[in-house]
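4.2 Preliminary Data

To establish feasibility before requesting continued support, the project team ran the inverse folding procedure on a target of 316 residues. The structure was first converted into the token representation described in Section 3, and no sequence information of any kind was made available to the design step. The complete token record follows.
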């Protein structure tokens, strides 16, 4: 993909880099933001790497833990694509990112986000089968089926990412090369376009429905069936624990859905860019930190494996 031309007062210059504004322009907040984001990123790496290591234990060789391992890998990747550059911007005067670097970052962010949405839908389906058809669970959620669902999620994410990235960078970019964001994303790049983007914005709304709302509806449908099965459980304590797990899962998914839709449904509303920064920070930094806590470390089997592993380390 060739570098775009920056148009300014009738002159054409080759656009070879962008300048990211970062999270905040207030100098007094830079160090505080740096240490806060650095701490969150460290927690993301530790939590998700821990899940990746724990779920390879022989007692956790089940589809649910396979999906959790893939989810942790996606969360690590999402945070790593965005956070290191954000930390550099917070402490450095050089806030530039190359044209090719911007394309690569946008492609990776969209690919990882879209893949994670489809994976979350696959995980909800796995839980639905486990709760509503326990006798057929092993037959339905075979190793081949699980690998197929992950591969389908990745392929779907790749298609979405290729289309969105190619479409954004075929827009004519003009005016300042400054991106009012802390990474290369669709909304701040669309704002830089000097041509009519209404056609692209309609396409982006369709993509948002396909990538976010469709999996979200499938997740809600799965959990509705799960909750209806939970209501039939006679034990009040078992019902309470099941409701607690379902509600925490749905809370994270709803937060992820809300932040994504608010960002991408109105990509060219420049007046809300600061609000979009906060929302983007939630789905690229905060949610990858929450997922290990919500999906795994509250799980009884995972906690037992963690306790055993810590006991072995302490003996050494």
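Position-by-position output of the design step:
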């Amino acid at each position: 993909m060739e570098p775009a031309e920056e148009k300014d007062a009738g002159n054409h210059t080759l656009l070879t880099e962008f300048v990211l504004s970062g999270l905040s322009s207030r100098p007094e907040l830079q160090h505080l933001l740096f240490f806060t984001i650095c701490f969150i990123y460290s927690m993301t790496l530790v939590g998700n790497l821990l899940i990746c290591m724990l779920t390879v234990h022989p007692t956790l060789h089940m589809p649910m833990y396979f999906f959790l391992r893939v989810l942790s890998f996606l969360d690590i990747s999402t945070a790593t694509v965005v956070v290191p550059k954000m930390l550099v911007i917070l402490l450095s005067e050089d806030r530039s990112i190359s044209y090719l670097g911007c394309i690569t970052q946008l492609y990776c962010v969209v690919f990882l986000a879209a893949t994670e949405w489809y994976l979350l839908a696959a995980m909800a389906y796995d839980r639905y089968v486990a709760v509503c058809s326990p006798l057929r669970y092993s037959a339905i959620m075979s190793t081949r089926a699980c690998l197929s669902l992950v591969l389908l999620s990745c392929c779907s994410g790749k298609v979405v990412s290729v289309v969105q990235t190619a479409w954004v960078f075929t827009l004519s970019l003009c005016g300042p090369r400054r991106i009012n964001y802390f990474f290369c994303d669709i909304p701040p790049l669309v704002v830089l376009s000097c041509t009519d983007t209404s056609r692209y914005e309609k396409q982006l709304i369709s993509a948002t429905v396909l990538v976010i709302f469709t999996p979200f509806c499938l997740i809600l449908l799965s959990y509705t069936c799960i909750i209806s099965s939970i209501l039939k459980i006679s034990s009040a304590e078992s019902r309470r624990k099941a409701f607690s797990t379902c509600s925490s899962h749905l809370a994270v998914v709803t937060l992820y859905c809300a932040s994504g839709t608010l960002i991408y449904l109105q990509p060219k509303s420049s007046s809300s860019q600061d609000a979009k920064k906060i929302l983007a920070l939630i789905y690229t930094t905060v949610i990858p930190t929450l997922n290990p806590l919500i999906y795994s470390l509250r799980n009884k089997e995972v906690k037992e494996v963690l306790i055993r592993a810590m006991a072995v380390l302490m003996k050494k």
